[in-house]
Amino acid sequence: MSARYGMVIDLDRCIGCGSCMVACAAENNVPALQQATVRTGLTPIVVRTVSNGQEGAARRETFIPIMCMHCEHDTPCVKVCPQQAVEVDRATGIVMQMPQRCLGCRYCMTACPYHARYFNWWDPAWPAGMEKSLNPGIAVRMRGVVEKCNLCHARLHTAKEKAAAAAKREIDPTDYVPACVEACPTSAIHFGNLADANDPVAKESRSPEAFRLLARLGTEPKVYYKSKEAWVRDLAETNSAPRPEVKHG
Amino acid sequence: MASRVLTDSRWIARGESRTSFSRFLLWLAPWTALLLVGIYAAFLCLYHGLNQTNMDNRFAFGLWIFLDLGIIALGAGAFFTGFLVYILKRVELKPILNTAVVVGFICYSGAVAILMIDVGQPLRAWFTFWHPNTHSMLTEVTFCISCYLLVLCLEYIPILLRNPQLRRLPSFLVFDHQLHRLIPVLAAVGAMLSFFHQGSLGGLYGVLRGRPFAFRSGILIWPSTFFLFILSAIASGPSFLMLVTAAVEKITGRKLVANEIFRRLALISGVLLGIYVAAKSIDTLIWLNITSPSEGFAPWQFYIHKPFGTPILFAEIVLFGLLPAFLLTFRATASRRGWLLCAAAMACAGVLLNRFVLTVQTLALPTLPFDDFLQYTPSWQEVASFAGVIAYGVIVYSLSYRYLPMFGSSKGEHADVSGN
Amino acid sequence: MFPGIDGFHWTFGHILFLLLFFAVALTIVAIVASAAWRTAQDFRNHHAIDLCWHTEFAQLPDSARRCRHELAGRVISRTCDNAFDCRHCSKYLQFAVLPPAGHLHLSGLDYPDDRYYHRGHTWVKPVEDGNVTVGLDELARHLVGTPDFCNLPKVGEELELNQTAWRMKKNGNEILVRTPIEGTVVAVGGPERDWYLKICPRFDLSEPVTLRHLLRGPEVSGWTNRELERLQEQLEAAHTPPALADGGVLLPDLMNVIPDADWESVLADTFLQL
């Protein structure tokens, strides 16, 4: 009964509010560091702004949340880690990062085409008092190791425990929802089991409006995007078009 | 008695003239200062973490990876000379074997030191030896480098034990003798290890499917960069040895190595460089026409970002590849010291440029369609630890030159030349 | 993190890879271990001193490694490849001619024929009680004169061939003298007597092979002439008045007469040190 958890993110609904980023940080005990910049901070999910590169009336912009795509085939980061700190969980399809095994060589970050991996450049720290709001179910990562989105794996554990307590083999899908999905005010992020043909998310992922970033690399990412706008869908593959300008975060 | 032992001249082989101790100290002083700055920078990186560097999540590898790959390529002279002398029995190269071993030792130990500073949790480095990921090129690199550094230490010990004071202790002398009998085995193991890890350092980037600029198809599990790195390393290693020897000759004002050996090294370096340039050209053509388009990347888009335009490709293959290959191979240019050293420097520069392009340019280029070309400037801590490694190398080499027989047993050589 | 813990599982790849790696690592460690073990073994079997001598011999200048047959003029040029141990030299018999005896007198130096000469400028003289006496030859005595300090081995000490037999000091220079014959020290003399050590040889003196490695007759004169030549060359470099004119006589107590010569080199070459 192996699952393949994945997402479909409806870019037409994303308003770029960043609730998912905040929810993710709160859920996963991401340190709140003053020193961190756009390029050094920990943002397991990050909402980026992309435009079609035109000016004036022809200009179009959209928001695109980027996170670990949980590549299924030849997962780039899994292949390169020298000490098996990254593994694809066969039961869930989640690409698991194990910070306790990581030596911080950052080879996986070099390998990831989505730049969805983050290094703990600083010792974790929180403003005074904020440590009381930490999530007790999640271990804080030490300085010098790599981390990334693990689809709120701890929530899966909780769901499994609940199912076990109720003597059920399968978890209730409503019990396992990542924090970002839960937090999105416009319900732009849909989460489900892609291996289950009847799952609405699996169906959605097969719609003609759905696409994946850099699917041509053949790594079978499990995070899909969806948009009615053709220029947004073109983002997935276009490289030769006039390059759109980029804004971080 | 003790004061006699501590006298500097007692530690210098009899018959070797060396500069005065005070002048030697004067020479070491600036390098020591640089080394101390480097150690301080390394301490900052280890104590405060890698936030001391200017690396970031996107530029996750910085100056250090270029330094590591660069000096390991240049240090290849050690294993390759050992391979030529002990395995292929090119005994005419024996007079430079010691200096090759010391240069190799410096390069590899320096690289490992830098590596330890630039990983997030150096104390966990041993994890790789316990639960290795057999599919990772970095595993291969870690294994081979650590084993080969061990081999280099063992090859360095007999040279160390040639010191006139150390050799007075009979146990050292006997150990040296016994170790020396086993050195060919070590050289063979070392050559195998180095061939592999020079290759896997190339494979490091060649396997990155997510970095189309570096990704290469290849043979079995090894991308083409695996073989190109081996070739370019053994081509540039002898050139670097020539440069080092010439620099030492210039500084000390002594003739240390026969011209014959220089020409032999030049020929080896030149021919191998020629083969490398041919292989690299074929590889580049395959990549431009097959590998990259099949991944959906038009190759020209890798070269639209200044300063990483096509001139850099030209410089890498023609200016610092083909040209020095010709200069090193032809007797007319190779027999003139000026041309020879110029060509050797170009060959080394070409290999360094290759390592730079493969590491730094790869990281700077965007992969995501809406991503941007990124720039990164190393922080002073990164530059200082880089400089510290160079200073370390100069100091170790200077000490070795002063107190150890670096260029064959020059005593026997001189006796041969002057006596007969 | 450890096998069986934290979800770690062995695969064939791991086992192969780890086997390969540890095989290489073991090879390296085994090489060091075997070198160390052999070293220890050498010391136990008293091979160590012989090995030291062989290693040092290989690094002596070519001019110091001439075969005795070259010195005697029986062959034009031959470098010794047996560390001066003619007893185990396969080539020795090829040339072996019993050296004619005779008292040698060279440049004022006396080389009596009742003794055998070692290349480290010592001699071995069989005495009536079956022991041998060991002393410095005339050339060495002319160089050193009376040493400032002399550290002789204790009676009963076992000496190996070519091992340092005793140490002397003169004008701040340390002099190490090599043992010309293996055996046990039975008595010590010193600079004030005409011998330094009395040794009970390990091997039977009546066997001709026991003293075969030592020089006699024309070998001694050939060797001494070369040594004098070398000495003169080295001392001339110090811009000093000649120690011996052509056909002249070597001055006694040279180290005091010409104090500013490069004595370190001279002494090392004379006593076969590196």
* Ends distance of chain C: 55 Å
- Spatially, the strands of the biggest sheet of chain A line up as 8-1-10-9
CATH architecture of the largest domain in chain C: Beta Barrel
Q: Which class best fits the helix and strand makeup of chain A?
A: alpha+beta
- Looking at the structure, what is the overall shape of chain C? elongated
Number of strands of chain C: 11
Point out poorly predicted stretches of chain C: none
CATH topology of chain A: Alpha-Beta Plaits
Largest interface: A-B, 58 and 48 residues
Provide the succession of SSEs of chain A.
EHEEHEEHEEHHEHEEHE
Can you describe what's shown?
The complex is a heterotrimer of chains A (about 250), B (about 425) and C (about 270). Chain A is an alpha+beta fold and about 250 residues long. Chain A has a single domain, classed as Alpha-Beta Plaits (2-Layer Sandwich), CATH 3.30.70.20. In chain A, about 20% of the residues lie in helices and about 15% in strands. Chain A is built from seven helices and eleven strands. Chain A has a four-stranded mixed β-sheet with strand order 8-1-10-9. In chain A, strands 3-2-11 form a three-stranded antiparallel β-sheet, with helices on one face. In chain A, strands 4-5 form a two-stranded antiparallel ribbon. In chain A, strand 4 (about 85-90) and strand 5 form a beta hairpin. Chain A is globular and about 45 Å long. Mean pLDDT of chain A is about 90; it is low at about 240-249. Chain B is mainly alpha-helical. Chain B has a single domain (about 20-365, about 380-405), classed as Formate dehydrogenase/DMSO reductase domain (Formate dehydrogenase/DMSO reductase fold, Up-down Bundle), CATH 1.20.1630.10. In chain B, about 70% of the residues lie in helices and about 0% in strands. Chain B is built from 15 helices and two strands. Chain C folds into two domains: about 10-45; about 50-270, OB fold (Dihydrolipoamide Acetyltransferase, E2P) (Beta Barrel). Chain C is elongated and about 90 Å long. The longest helix of chain C is centred in the N-terminal third of the chain and has 33 residues, at about 10-45. The mean pLDDT of chain C is about 85. Chain C contains eight helices and eleven strands. Classes of the chains: A alpha+beta (about 250), B mainly alpha (about 425), C alpha+beta (about 270).
